[in-house]
Amino acid sequence: MKSEKVEPVKLHRRQVGLDGRAFTVLTLRSSTDCRYATNYFHETWHVLTDPAGARLLGRLCWSLAFQRRRGTIAVIDQPLLVPNPFDADMSAPIVIANSDLAPLNRTAIGQLKRFVAQKKPSEGSVRLSTSGLDRLLAEDPSRTLRELHQRSGVWWNDHQRRGWTDRVNGVVVLAAPPPVLQWWAIWLSQLGSHWYRGSDYTELDHSTTRRREGEVQVFEHFTTMVSKAVATRERLFPGVAHRELLDDERRAVWAALPPRAEPQRVSGLPT
Prior knowledge:
Blueprint: E1 9-18, E2 21-28, E3 37-41, E4 44-49, H1 51-65, E5 72-76, E6 94-98, H2 106-117, E7 125-128, H3 131-137, H4 141-152, E8 164-168, E9 171-176, H5 178-189, E10 199-203, E11 215-219, H6 222-236, H7 247-256
Parallel strand pairs: 2-5, 4-11, 6-9
Antiparallel strand pairs: 1-2, 1-7, 3-4, 5-6, 8-9, 10-11
Helix pairs in contact: 1-5, 4-5
């Protein structure tokens, strides 16, 4: 697979104590073009974006896989979040973590959400270089990474093949040890190469994890879909943009949107 040249990702850096531990919080700059949404379907949490957004998400995963500083996490928050393109429910902040270096519990995640909402000034900038991912994508990335993991021994280590995706205290958490973050980076970088009815997706699981623990889905016309969902929701249910719709309200929005934006299955929303 031929990979395009990508400039190093620039992020803001802030320090915070979460549940008694020191964390470095990296956030994308407001000038970043990509936009993201979250929703819960098929009994799993989804991150929704376009192919460029998925590639950027993959680069964050790759960088965190090789992070050496304990407590370093990446957060995607406003203004990069948009309502989801299915029913325009508001999207949750997204945190990506190397679970070996930055373990997160419910208390820490709740404190993180409050910290991010404060919009404190940046304490500095970080440039994430992902040249290793570029080299891998220029080859046969899946075969090459599998061989590297087999030689290192992590391929047979259950702990190093276990990811975690869930919404906790209003934050969608994507956490995994370095080998899984590397796989996520490859899968996310390849999204948009197999379109079906205007979308492509990858499940964030591994061969030893249970299915449907998380998914990233991309759309060819993501921005347009979001705009139509927002307008349709406001027409049907004016003045309720900041609360989650009830199930019958959600189905009414789906019915009023083009078929491509309608999810195939839905489960009840968790609290």
